[in-house]
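Fold this complex.
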Amino acid sequence: MANPMGSALSMLNKIAASETIDKIGMRKPLEKLVYAGTKTGFSAISAANRQFKPLLDVVRPTRMRHARTPDLFDLNFTDEQAMFRDTVRRLVDERVIPVAATADEERATPRALLDQIHALGVSLMAVPEELGGAGVERDEVLHMILAEELGRGDMGIATAALAPLGVINALTQWGTANQQAKYLAAFASESFVPATVALNEASVLFDPFQLQTTARRTADGYELNGEKTLVPLAEDSALFLVAAKLTGEGPRLFIVEPGMEGVSCRPDPAMGLGAAATQRLLLEQVKLPREALLGDIDTAFDYEAFIQLTRIGWSAVVTGCCQAVLDYVIPYVKDREAFGEPIAFRQSVAFMVANIGIELEGLRLLVYRAASRAAQDKSFAREAYIAYLQASEKGMQIGTDGVQLLGGHGFTKEHPVERWYRNLRSAGIQYNAFMV
Amino acid sequence: MLNLDLPRKFKGIMEPAEQAARNVFRPISRKYDRAEHEYPKELDLFSAAIDGMNDGDLSKSAGAAKLKQDASGDEGVRNGSNMQSLAGMEWLCWGDVGLVLTLPRNGLGNAAIAAVANEEQTKRFDGKWAAMAITEPGAGSDSAAIRTTAQLDGDAYVLNGEKIYITSGERTDLIVVWATVDKSAGRAAIKSFVVEWGTPGMELVRLEKKLGIRASDTAQVLFKDCRVPKENLLGSPEVDTRKGFGGVMQTFDNTRPMVAGMALGVARAALERIRELLEAQVKPQYGKPVLNVSAIEAELHRMDAELEAARLLTWKAAWMADNAQPNSMEASMAKAKAGRVCNWITLRCVEIAGSLGYGEDELLEKWARDSKILDIFEGTQQIQQLVVARRLLGLSSAQLK
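Structure:
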């Protein structure tokens, strides 16, 4: 089959076959993005001005199905997924890694870079065809691959770039017909649309199932009160999915638009994830219409599944960063000499590298298993939980070993291990991540 | 297509293995832990049953004999003999690892024969039980320091030297002996020889008394002018310094995941038992962060996570072998991870169960003794780390000692 999009574009076959991209005028911009590699000329989106309008008149929500997986233990990706991984890998090497340190320092990911990552087409593929995207199948594994590769580039940039995908996936999986029609099409546009989940709160021993943010029923909807921490891209976000405790029930997600009264944000700089431009999101007596409750009152919404899919996504990002540590320390310890020979010749150094390799691979396989089970409609709560647990513990261990292996040099900003140490501490903490 | 669950067809091997573990091994587990050096005669019947299952699936699960790197040119992903053996192995060792180690006709020597024997040898040694003799009083992990010599004299090699820690060394029909044909040529001169028990010049010195796996005998054997037919040399007789250990070491790529599989079985046994004992106190749930649950629940989650990581690393190594991918590093990763995780879990479970776990009424204390060997034989934890480090760093054994 001819490849009209150029070899750089990953999901070429599916995207190319999609009639939707012609319908919405996406083919040309996509081609341009793919061929050009870099791009300028997309005007910045002003978050507050964005108007979400229902695209179509839909009565039933659209759910995407999974592809069938053969009953064989298999560590291979599909050809399509492998090609996609290679494409992301190149993009990360050429565009993400060179700007990562600056993005962290300046606490901003360049919009052009977010557009380039967006141009890989993942969001487009995540929005169902019927709703203006090009998505046919739900593919958690593909999203996991994207997360792992971006995490290898920079966890902060990954957080920013992936945040809208979490919103899309939640809307696709649980949104009502009206919610999907109103919001999803916007994400299938040619440029990056910032949007994010807001879940974390400033409390010790934070538990995503015990939220302080509340949603109280009112005559015509809900009133939201609370404060969210570490929210990526909050200042520019066109849409928030805010987690709050619905009085008398449990935690739910609410669709919040930034222009609403009572919604504000302020910078919330942290130890790491600088490039995600994290903010505090303040919600003071925010009046929401009834339609703001994700999944409506009757539609089944699974908060635990949402949390577990988020854990898989974040664990994949952590895995990628651990890979970056390993890739960096290997040449360093072979090059660095002490006592007349490379320090790699010493077992105390070499064994540390070996253990990074062993624990990283174990972590990766846990993440792969959790994602692949989700993609096969099998239960995945345990698998996601233990993957996240290992990501938290091994991730931080690898982060601290990375600095240790470089000694004093690792403590300075001359080397990226300093940033990875800070970023990896968010393993086990960050819940404002995207669900795969 | 990514899938890290075992195929349903493995039920054919895992169910009989589970039955054997529950009904054959567990009931006699404590008996042969106490009666060290006594031959578990129950196993003869069991082995006969396995052999009797013509082409039965369980015969593939029982040990190392069927292991082989699959190099057939088949298209597509394979879940073959390495993975099947592994799946069975975990279950059998959930029953009792000591008894599994002394299962007739499934010694490590059988794995060596399966990996490097030629067609004639394969036929000649078929159906025999073979132990493996590598370690010497002065050479453990450092196999290149082997001092047992094999001198070609007419139609035979003459073996001289002393071998220790031979698993099932007294009970087997054959012993695969590592010896050097030229002391000055280093590891390239190390060859393996199949010696039939009863060959004049070989003598059982003693059986070890051990910390664990007491059902499995560990022998010391002396070779004094022991003449072995020249046709019993496994692999090439040439001393090729460029190839080094060559064929001898490639056995490990197949057997290390198997030993890792043993560790998975023992660790799972302990984890399951401690869960049973804690049933009233702890119900597993996967929502709350690990910091928000009780200390014991958090500990169980950690053990679960570590064991699952070890299991997936092991499956990966076996899967690579089934799909003809070089897996030396992955085999060592699996062995390193599974060995240390198993030892940690079994010891922790004893501690959690207190004096109940420490006492002989429970098998927890036995598993905590058995587990230690799994982090030692087939390459210690440190040797595995060395293998992994050399591969990751691209260093030779001369550079990273």
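Confidence is low (pLDDT under 50) at residues 1-14, 23-49 of chain A.
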